[in-house]
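Lesson 9: reading folded outputs for more than one chain in a single document. The general rule is that every protein is listed as its sequence immediately followed by its C-alpha cells, and records are never interleaved. Here is the first one.
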Amino acid sequence: MGLLDDKVVLVNGGSQGVGAAVARAAVREGAVVAVSGRRAEPGEALVAELAAAGGKAMFVRADLADAEQAMGSVARTVEAYGRIDCLVNSAGLTSRGTLLDTTPELFDAHIAINLKAPFFAMRAAVADMVRRAAPGTVVNVITSSAHGGQPFLAPYVAAKAGLTGLTRNAAHAHRWDRIRINGLNIGWTATEGEDATQRAFHGAGDDWRSRQPHACRWAGWANRTRSPTSWSCCSPTAPGWSPAP
C-alpha cells in the first residue's frame, strides 16, 4: 500500500527538476498524477516515463505566470480525474538580481512565477476541496532565503517571502476545512534549471556539481526514495503518518 493510493496529485512546474522528482515519488506511492509546465517536450517525456513504470499521468501545458492558466491547470486536472486531492507548487524562477540592478520586468517575472502562480492555483484547488467538503493538501516549495538570502537573489527573496506568508495564512484559514497547507523547504538543489542558472549568471564550468556534493546527493535521493512531499500530500489517516511535534 502506498501513501498516496488513488489520490489525485497535480504538480505545477512538474516537467523537470524538483517537480519531476515529486511526480515520480507520487506515482511510486500510488497517486494519479498531472504535471504542468510551459514546454510540452519534457512534460510529455516525463508522462511517458511514468506510464512506462505503470503509473497513470497526464501533462497539462500551462504558462503559470498567467493566473488564468495557473487556475486552468487545476481545472484540467479536475476535468480529467474528477477531483484534486493534493496540489504541489514547485515551479520557480531563480534569475539573479540585486536591489540595485533588478528591473521592473525581472521583479514582475519573479512575482508572477514564485507568488502569483501558487496563489491562484491554490485558490482553484482549495475551492474544489471545499466544494466537495473533502480533505486535501497543498505543498508549496519555499526557501530559507525568504528570511534573508544572498544579495543577488533580491526579487526571488521578495516573492518567496510572500509565498511563505501566504502559506501560513492559507493554512490558518482552511484548517477547519481539513485542508493542510504546508511549506516545504528542501534547500538548495542541483537541477537542470540550476545548471543553466549557474552557467549563465556565475560562469560555472562542467565540474560545478562536483563542488556541491550535498545538493547532488539530494537530487539523486529525491528520485529514489520516499520523499518529504509524499508525506506532506498524504491523508492524516495514512499508515505511518504522524503530525509534526
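And here is the second record, again sequence then C-alpha cells.
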Amino acid sequence: MARTREISKQRIQEGLHQVLADLLRLELRDERLQFVTITSVALDAALATAEVWVCAPAGKPNLQSKILAALDENSPLLRRELAARVRLRRIPALRFRWDPAPDHAAHMEDLIASLPDAHA
C-alpha cells in the first residue's frame, strides 16, 4: 500500500510540475517570470503543500528575489488554474524555493574551462 501511495504522490508531483511549467510559459504575462524554469515539485506527506523549486538562466542570480516575489504574487492565480486543470480534492499551497543547482553547475563548468590543458 505504501508503494502505491508513493507512486501516486510521484504522479501528482509530475502533473503539478507539467501544469505549472505550462502556466508560466504560456499564461502568465509577468516579465519577471520570462526565463524562469521549474526544476522540481515536492509534495509533503499530506499533499497539502507543494515546494516548487525554480531557477533562472545562469548569469542572472541577482533576479532571485524579484522572481520569488513575482511567483508569490501570482500564487493565487496559479492555484486557481491548477484547480481547473488538475483533478485533486484539494490543491496544495505553493511554496516557491530557489534551486541553486544550475548556478553551481555553471560555476563548475567555468572552473573546469579555466583549468590549463594538461595535454598541451
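What the second record shows: Helices lie at 2-27, 64-85, 101-114.
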